TrEMBL record, chain A:
Residues 169-296 form the TFIID subunit TAF5 NTD2 domain. Residues 96-111 have a biased composition (Gly residues). The lineage of its organism: Eukaryota, Metazoa, Chordata, Craniata, Vertebrata. The keyword Nucleus applies. InterPro entries: LisH, TFIID_NTD2, TFIID_NTD2_sf, WD40/YVTN_repeat-like_dom_sf, WD40_PAC1, WD40_repeat_CS, WD40_repeat_dom_sf, WD40_rpt. Its main location: nucleus. Belongs to the WD repeat TAF5 family. Residues 1-43, 91-120, 343-395 are annotated as: Disordered. Keywords: Nucleus, Repeat, Transcription, Transcription regulation, WD repeat. This is mRNAion initiation factor TFIID subunit 5-like.
TrEMBL record, chain B:
It comes from Huso huso (Beluga). Residues 10-73 form the TATA box binding protein associated factor (TAF) histone-like fold domain. Residues 511-529 have a biased composition (Low complexity). It is found in: Nucleus. This is TAF6-like RNA polymerase II p300/CBP-associated factor-associated factor 65 kDa subunit 6L isoform X1. The lineage of its organism: Eukaryota, Metazoa, Chordata, Craniata, Vertebrata. Residues 451-547 are annotated as: Disordered.
Length: 758, 628
């Protein structure tokens, strides 16, 4: 049979159905070798038609109609073949139908596209014959639509979907499913939790298969019967799924395509897997087995089966857990060596003396030596792994300022919590969408739904633009205060508006040197603004859909953006095209963050995973699963070792980047966590949420409590301590103001920002 | 299973699709319409799901039309124009025919274009910083409070706030009405809510000024009724202000000329409204009321009637009457009795209050008894008519839609008059009745419009029951909750405190006088004819008008057997604060000079420091004193 299928499927030129036929056949799992271009559709009809028509009187009518058509078209040879094959294959079909064996699968699979074929033929030849087909017995009539439109469809979509061609009796799906359910309920407790993971992907694929094959009623019944069994964290996906009842709808649904293209990953211990395999083979439950083979990736490990808690903490993402190999790559999470800057000691001493008297001499020394003595971190990437911009004089000055400030930094801890200042945006009319502070906390910028970006100075120093070119030419360029002279005092104001976007601004980021501001918007562009002239310098066009987030590298020059097109792009400010495109997420990229060493970027996505990408080669080096909702905030710890992530489910998860492990779960927020920030020394993690609270967590304790032994590291099986309440150091209400940004000043004062929302 | 699925999503019915198709001139078959409908549902769901993403990224909780339009735009669908409002559009049903529509008011462009007060744009977005927490502890300001945004209010809002408060608290009645009306319907004053609440919380500072108090209550009412305001936590502040007006011995009540009862009644009514409309926001309000009532009952006399304002204002606490009032009544009674029996001048004020208490208790007890009787009779009796006949006095409120409403039941009563009320009622109702009767005597009996059946029981001072011809007009309307008994207390020169002592009353009138004081009874024709003269009388009342505006003093018609109206407000759920009027039988022909004014009645104006002399008018000879 396979031989017959493979061979002659080349469409005749006058036959308009050719593309559809080839597409469907190509994608069919039954036709593993179907890559061969089809040669004769008539022959295909002849070979495959009967299988579908097996034991069906209405199919017989179809067959007759086809024969009639062939006769009319004077394709006697084909007619002859068809006649012969029909009689022959009818018998085979009967025997297969009862056995439901592996061969049946192939036959059934092959039949599906043909029935569409046949119907399109019929619709042209004899309408009466087409209507004679009863809808529930064969999906043929409704398939007319895809056949007609099939030519314009992207072939890959069809290929993907065609994998859902009929594989058995739909009526039996609930039986199969509940059979498996019974079996899993009956296995030992230790295996049950692991095997239960199979339910969700199986449920989804079975449902989609039913929908694809247009068993609408059956699909609905199937959904109603079993959707209650699924884990609650899949409810968002189930909601999408339940709305989908037509094959036509599947084509436009990206979520489903993703679900199809990527295999759902399960981690199951070898014992449990053997148990399942044995069961399915004993029962000859090929439907389920096939789905597992085709659509699931089972990551088998040796050792103890995992507990329900362990599984639940890791699952929840759109495509199951990450494969273990995915997190095996080496990540250089260490910090780059700070460039040696000669701290002008005298200067500082003078200042210190001026301020507080004499005993200040030690500090700057300590500081400068401290930065100098910092040896290369073994986990750090090579200094030149990623080319970084050279430090300018102004950068060095800023670094010095930073160090000075750092000496006055408050040491935080459970006993000494930071003070919190809250920047409230008034009269924002629900329009504030993004906030950022400069590193030295001198400027704050807000992105608004009305497409504007506004920059405020939060110091008494007003914002001034540079003079016009004409005026600049009049300046004495050799004077010492030239930098002061180029500024136009007339433009001084507390805030500046930046106009240029044509959609809500969803993300903004200051450059480290405070000369630039990035903003990304719904209009699919990222814009670079000069904070010297307060004008737009570049519009980066590369994304095709709204850009949800963008961020400057901590060293400047590079920036990352990610959006609805599920791709993150790495840019350099002087290139109008992206340097890297990070693709792999199955849904929107909702937030992007640079690693402190600028060698990696982390992206959080609506597919409920976090990925860490290597900028050097564009590889995805970490996939973190465990969130149960779209991720809206990310923060690297200052030492680069850890990552914190917050999602719509209100939970904050902590990750060990080096080991690729989840190491903590902070529960407390009741709404989306939109802001996360580590204190300057990494002792405290602050989280801000839609629930109008800022919470402070003991980061040191959270990281210390985790003992990452080799076994845990090897298997990735973590048992999270239930210590959220111990780690929570404080919960602070704002005044009806959702917290959308948090920032620690260089002296560890916590700044929050949000729009008053009456 | 199937309908569970249905419930999960709104579905566009096939008919709607057909209708829309027709509107553009396309005829659809059922099959196609069904398929289209399903597709429309799916697309809508998809768009809704996509739009929620825009909402999340805009860090909002509320999905806006803009979000939806963006989702449409990105799926290459034309956006829906014309709905880009930040606020939710009112979506309302049309009662006739199941039609739902988005309210789309017409805008008079000419008016808009020629308007001189061009509205300014929105206030400038600004950033304000405040130190929220020092060293992680110590709230500088209370958590969750409103930011000090006064300066951030737009000039327009500030002006609005000033104008409205000035208008409401000012002199001009007309202006006040306009302001209140606007406060009730304005959709853009959410930002001002805290300020208005603050104004209202100033009740304590104006407790001497009834006028101001009632204006503040009006303000509360408008705020509560404004559909665009989410009162949230402010409701507590509002409730406490209203409670203050009900419960506290207001400074204004010192002056007997001040009709603080009206205020309290109004406040109670308002509270009941809040209770029904925003009960979800003020959880535990009901229990709070019960508690305060209990406290009042066991406490001093002064506060008692206030509790009854509560009682009568809320529909629910009939059980509360039983549970709280009944056990305490006997203990309290002696207290009240002493007050009422004290005829000394110094006691005048207290005594006047005492009568109100009496009236309030009576009403409450009446309600209680009726409820009990009703609960007993309902299972037995099949129809209202049957019940009417057997329990004429205990019939449930027969509340006709129109006012005055005695018509429906009165004809039933005709045949029913004379049937004793308590006879068919088994224990414990009779027991309770008997006990209460011991307190109230016939005034209780009459409230049930019962016939002579109770006469033998009337132990003290029971005048003969009115003849049936009178009863005819006495409808069984039981909806009156709180009679305004204030009317003649201060105006009219006091007559004899007890009609028993009145020397020369016509037999019929005399006999009917006492018991019918508390019944609102009149022939329907009388009701119709009376209000106009009463209004005329009020207009002539001069300075006392305002204080006693709730009372209606009809000019005594020559032939009518009734001459007195008690006016007030019907509260409770059914009546929605409708006014009621009760006419009282005429005691004797109007003759102002005939009755010697009682001593304290002379003094009252003096106590009230009334500048102008109180006009004695035609009704002044009538007494509202109850026969005891």
């Amino acid at each position: 049979m396979a031989a017959v299928q493979d061979g002659p499927i080349e469409p005749e030129p006058e036959n308009e159905i050719k593309t559809e036929t080839s597409n469907e056949v190509l994608g069919n799992p039954g036709d593993a070798s179907g890559g061969v271009p089809p040669t004769a559709p008539v022959a295909a009809v002849a070979t495959e038609k009967p299988a579908a028509a097996a034991a069906d009187s209405t199919e017989r009518q179809t067959l007759l109609a086809v024969l009639q058509f062939l006769k009319k078209s004077k394709l006697f040879e084909s007619e002859e073949i068809l006649r012969r094959e029909a009689g022959l294959l009818n018998e085979i079909g009967d025997s297969q139908g009862s056995g439901a064996g592996g061969a049946g699968l192939g036959g059934g699979g092959g039949a599906e596209p043909e029935s569409g074929d046949a119907s399109s033929l019929l619709s042209r030849v004899a309408g009466a014959a087409a209507t004679a087909q009863s809808a529930n017995a064969t999906p043929a009539p409704a398939k007319v639509t895809p056949v007609v439109t099939g030519g314009e469809d992207q072939p890959d979509v069809n290929v993907v979907l065609a994998a859902y061609s009929q594989q058995g009796d739909p009526v039996l799906y609930p039986v199969y499913y509940s059979g498996l359910k019974r079996f899993i309920d009956s296995v030992l407790d230790c295996h049950r939790a692991e095997l239960s993971q199979v339910f969700y992907p199986l449920f989804v694929h079975m449902y989609l298969e039913l929908v694809y094959n247009q068993y609408e009623k059956e699909a609905k019944a199937f959904f109603d019967k079993f959707h209650g069994d699924q884990e609650c964290y899949y409810k968002d996906d189930l909601r999408i799924l339940s709305g989908l009842t037509k094959k036509e709808h599947m084509k436009g649904n990206e979520t489903l395509l993703d679900f199809r293209t990527s295999k759902f990953v399960l981690r199951i211990s070898r014992d449990s897997y053997q148990l399942l395999k044995r069961h399915l083979q004993e029962r000859q439950n090929n439907q389920i087995w096939n789905i597992i083979q085709e659509h699931l990736y089972i990551d088998i490990f040796d050792g103890m089966p995992r507990s329900k808690g362990q599984i639940d903490s890791m699952s929840g993402s759109l495509a199951g857990e990450a494969k273990r190999e995915a997190n095996k790559a080496k990540v250089f999470y260490g910090l780059l060596k700070e460039p040696e800057i000669e701290v002008p000691l005298d200067d500082e001493d003078e200042e210190a003396e001026n301020e507080e008297g004499k005993p200040k001499k030690k500090k700057p020394k300590k500081d400068s030596t401290g930065s100098k003595s910092k040896k290369q971190d073994p986990n750090a990437p090579q200094q030149s792994r990623i080319p970084l911009p050279e430090l300018k004089d102004s950068d060095k000055l800023d670094k010095i300022m930073n160090m000075k400030e750092a000496t006055k930094r408050v040491r935080l801890g459970p006993e000494s919590l930071p003070s919190i200042c809250f920047y409230t945006f008034l009269n924002a009319y629900q329009g504030l969408t993004a906030v950022d502070f400069t590193d030295d906390s001198s400027l704050v910028a807000g992105g608004f739904a009305d497409s504007t970006v506004r920059v405020w100075s939060v110091t008494p120093k007003k914002l001034r633009g540079v003079k016009t070119a004409g005026d600049l030419s009049l300046i004495d360029k050799d004077s010492d205060d030239v930098l002061e002279r180029i500024m136009d005092e007339k433009t001084a104001s507390e805030s500046k508006n930046l106009y240029g976007h044509s959609g809500p601004v969803y993300g903004i980021s200051f450059s480290p040197d405070r000369n630039y501001l990035l903003s990304c918007s719904e209009d699919a562009t990222v814009r670079l603004w000069s904070l010297q002239t307060f004008t737009c310098l570049v519009g980066y066009k590369g994304h095709n859909y709204p850009v949800w987030d963008t961020q400057f590298s901590p060293y400047g020059y590079y920036f990352i953006s990610g959006g609805h097109d599920r791709v993150a792009r790495l840019w350099a400010t002087d290139h109008y095209q992206p340097l890297r495109i990070f693709s792999g997420h199955l849904a929107d990229i909702t937030c992007t963050r640079f690693h402190p060493n600028s060698n990696y970027v982390a992206t959080g996505s609506a597919d409920r995973t976090i990925r860490l990408w290597d900028i050097l080669n564009g590889n995805c080096v970490r996939i973190f699963t465990g969130h149960k909702g779209p991720i809206h905030s990310l923060a690297f710890s200052p030492n680069g070792k850890f990552l914190a992530s917050g999602a719509t489910d209100g939970r904050v998860l902590l990750w060990d980047i080096g080991h690729g492990l989840m190491i903590g779960e902070l529960k407390g927020h009741t709404d989306t966590v939109y802001a996360l920030k580590f204190s300057r020394d990494g002792e405290i993690l602050a989280s801000g949420s839609m629930d109008n609270t800022v919470r402070l967590w003991d980061a040191i304790k959270a990281f210390d409590d985790i003992e990452t032994d080799d076994f845990t590291a090897a298997t990735g099986h973590i048992t999270l301590p239930e210590n959220s309440q111990e780690l929570l150091l404080g919960s602070y209400m704002t005044k009806s103001t959702p917290v959308i940004h948090l920032h620690f000043t260089r002296r560890n004062l916590l700044l929050g920002a949000g729009a008053y929302n009456p | 299973m199937a309908d569970r699925e249905e419930r999960k999503f709104a579905e566009v019915p096939r008919d709607s699709v057909k209708l829309m198709a027709e509107s553009v001139g396309v005829e659809l078959s059922d099959d196609i319409a069904a398929m289209l409908a399903e597709d429309v549902c799916y697309r809508l769901r998809e768009a809704a799901q996509n739009s929620s993403q825009f909402m999340r990224h805009a860090k909002r909780r509320r999905l806006t039309v803009e979000d939806f339009n963006r989702a449409l735009r990105w799926s290459n669908v034309e956006a829906v124009c014309g709905y880009g409002s930040q606020d939710a559009l009112p979506f309302r049903p049309l009662k006739e025919g199941e039609l739902y529509f988005v309210e789309d008011r017409e805008i008079n462009l000419v008016e808009l274009a020629l308007a001189t007060n061009i509205p300014k744009g929105c206030a400038e977005t600004m950033v304000r910083v405040q130190v929220s927490y020092l060293d992680g502890k110590g709230n500088v300001e209370p958590q969750g409070a409103v930011p000090t945004a006064v300066q951030s209010l737009t000039d327009d809002l500030l002006k609005y706030y000033q104008q409205v408060t000035r208008a409401i608290l000012g002199e001009d009645q007309q202006l006040m009405k306009v302001a209140l009306q606007d406060l009730q319907t304005n959709s853009k004053i959410a930002a001002l809510l805290p300020y208005f609440v603050h104004v209202v919380s100033g009740v304590k500072s104006v407790s001497h000024d009834l006028e101001q108090l009632s204006r503040l209550l009006h303000m509360v009412k408008s705020l509560v009724q404004n559909p665009f305001l989410y009162l949230g936590s402010y409701i507590k502040s509002l409730v406490s202000s209203v409670m203050y007006c009900i419960l506290e011995p207001l400074a204004a009540s010192i002056n007997p000329l001040n009709d603080h009862w009206t205020l309290r009644d109004y406040a109670a009514l308002l509270l009941s409204h809040i209770f029904w409309a925003h009960g979800d926001l003020v959880g535990g309000l009901y229990h709070q009321i019960l508690l305060s009532l209990q406290k009042v009952l066991s406490g001093s006399f002064k506060k008692l009637p206030l509790g009854f304002c509560f009682l009568t204002s809320l529909c629910v606490p009939l059980q509360a009457v039983e549970r709280v009032l009944f056990p305490h009544l006997s203990a309290y009674w002696s207290n009240l009795q002493a007050v009422l029996d004290d005829d000394s001048v110094s006691n005048a004020q207290v005594k006047a209050d005492g009568h109100k208490v009496y009236g309030a208790i009576l009403v409450a007890v009446e309600k209680l008894l009726k409820m009990k009787a009703q609960s007993r009779s309902v299972p037995v009796e099949g129809s209202v008519a049957v019940r009417e006949r057997s329990f004429p006095g205990l019939s449930p409120p027969q509340e006709p839609v129109s006012e005055p409403g005695f018509g429906i039941a009165s004809h039933l009563l005709q045949g029913a008059a004379g049937v004793p009320a308590e006879e068919p009622v088994p224990v414990p109702l009779p027991v309770m009745y008997r006990e209460l009767y011991a307190f109230f005597g016939d005034s209780l009996a009459v409230r049930f419009s019962t016939g002579p059946g109770i006469e033998p029981r009337a132990s003290r001072a029971a005048p003969p029951q009115p003849p049936d011809s009178k009863k005819e007009g006495m409808g069984p309307d039981t909806t009156r909750k709180m009679p305004q008994l204030t009317a003649s207390m201060t105006i009219s020169p006091r007559q004899d405190s007890s009609p028993r002592n009145e020397p020369s009353l016509p037999a019929v009138q005399n006999s009917s006088a006492a018991p019918s004081r508390f019944q609102r009874s009149s022939s329907s024709s009388l009701q119709r004819s009376k209000p106009p003269p009463s209004k005329a009388a009020q207009r002539s009342a001069g300075p006392t008008r305002e204080v006693f505006q709730k009372s209606r003093f009809p000019l005594p018609p020559a032939a009518a057997p009734f001459s007195f109206l008690i006016a007030g407000r019907q509260t409770g759920r059914r009546c929605q604060g409708r006014r009621f009027q009760t006419s009282f039988p005429q005691l004797h022909p109007p003759n102002p000079s005939a009755q010697p004014p009682r001593g304290y009645a002379h003094k009252l104006p003096v106590i009230g420091r009334m500048g102008k002399p109180v006009k004695r008018w035609v009704c002044s000879q009538y007494s509202l004193h109850l026969p005891l």
